[in-house]
C-alpha cells in the first residue's frame, strides 16, 4: 500500500516537472523567435477596448475613436465575423508561404523537405476582434502607430494587419456598398430632403458632386507601370501634391451616395467624372424626371447636371447662383466631415501602400463615415496627441480651415481641407472644342436644361441674394 502511494506521488511529481519543462521551453522558444526572421518576440500586456473606454470615459473615447462607445459596439457586432475571416485567410496565406519556402530548401542529400511547418507561437495571447477594430479606428483617426501599439499591447505588424483586416471586412459588407440609387423613389426622397434645406424650395436636387484629392507619396515607377500611367499623372499642379482624384456625390446630410476613384490627381474633375460608372448611368437616364445633380463649374451644364452661371455679378442669374450654392456646398461640407473624422487623409499615405490598397482604404473610410452619420455621431475635434502626430508628418499635413463661403451661405462655420479640394478645377485634359461640342448637344436637345428652369423658379419666387452676401 505504501509502495503504491510512493509510485503515485512520484508520477505526480514527474508530470509536474514535465509540465514545467514544457512551459519553460515554450517561453524560451517564444522569446527567441519573433514575427520577423531574426527578431525576438517582445512580451506584451494585452488590453481590451472596454478597459480603454473605462480609462478614457465617453467624451474622450468619442474623440479618440471618432464615434461613441455604443456605436463602436454596434460596428464591432457587424464587422467581427469579417475581421475574423480576414485574419484566418491571412494566417492560411502565411502558412502556405512558409510551406513553399520550406519546400524550396534542400537538406542533406538534396531532397526537399516536404513536412508541414508548425504554427508560429503566440506568446502574448490571441488578439480579439474588438481590439483589432479599435486599432484600425485609432489609425484612421490619425493616431500614431506606436501609441496604438502601447495602448493595446500589440506589435506594429499586428497593428497594421488589424487595419487591413478591418478594411477588408468593411468593403465586403454588401449592404454598405456605396452606389448611387437607381430607384426613383429613393432619388425623390433625396430631393425632398434638399428641398427642406433650400430657401427657394429647390426640390430637384438629387445629390451634389465634387472632387477631392487623396494625398499619396510619389508612386514608384513599378507602381505607376502596374496601373498603366506615368508618375506625373498622379501629380496635381494646383495643389502641389501626388495623389488620386476621388469623385463623390452626397445627400443633404453629407452621406456619400456614390464614390469613384479611377484617375490620378493630375486629372480634371470632368474627366474623372466622365469615366465613372455614375456618368454612364446618367447618360442612360437613370434619374427620375426633373431631377439633376448640382455641381460647380468644373463640370458641364447638361440635362442631368445643373452648374452655376459663369461670370455673373448681379441679376437673376447671380441670384440663382447663390441658392444653387446653398445646396451644392453640402459636398464640401461632407469632405470636411470625412477628413475631420479620419485624420489619416490629412497626411500623405505612408510609403509602401499601393494604389490598390489606397483605393480600398478610402472606400472603407467613406463607408465608416456613412455609418457614423447613420449613428448620429458628429465629427468632433480630434485628440491633441493625434493632431500632433498629423502635424509632425514628414510629408507635411493639410490644415482644416474655416470655410468663409460655407459660413456666408449656410450661416455656420464648417472647417474644410482646402489643400485637397479644388485640385481638379481645370480643363487641361479636355480641349475647349470638345467641351463646346458637348454643350451644344445639350442646348440642341428638346428638353429644357435644369439650370434655366431653376433660374426661372428663383425669379418666380422673387428671391434675391442676401445683401450681406452680395459681391462688391
Give a brief description.
The chain is of the alpha+beta class. It has 17 helices and ten strands.
Give your account of this protein's structure.
With 472 residues, the chain is of the alpha+beta class. Helix content is 51%, strand content 10%. β5 and β6 form a beta hairpin. The longest helix has 36 residues, at 69-104.
Notable features of this structure?
single chain, 472 residues, alpha+beta, two-stranded antiparallel ribbon, 17 helices
The gyration radius over C-alpha positions equals: 28 Å
Query: What string, H for helix and E for strand, traces the elements in order?
Result: HHHEEHHHHEHEEEHHEEHHHHEHEHH
Number of helices: 17
- Arithmetic mean pLDDT: 86
Termini distance? 111 Å
Spatial shape: globular
Overall helicity = 40-55%
Structural class: alpha+beta
Number of strands: 10
Indicate the proportion of strand residues: 5-15%
Biggest sheet character = 6 strands, mixed
Question: pLDDT under 50 segments (min length 5)?
Answer: 17-33
SSE layout:
Blueprint (H helix, E strand, L loop, with lengths): L1 H31 L16 H17 L3 H36 L1 E2 L3 E2 L16 H12 L4 H8 L3 H16 L12 H14 L7 E12 L4 H7 L7 E2 L4 E10 L5 E9 L4 H6 L2 H7 L8 E3 L10 E2 L9 H13 L1 H12 L13 H20 L9 H8 L9 E2 L1 H7 L4 E2 L15 H13 L5 H12 L11
Parallel strand pairs: 3-7, 7-8
Antiparallel strand pairs: 1-2, 3-5, 4-5, 5-6, 9-10
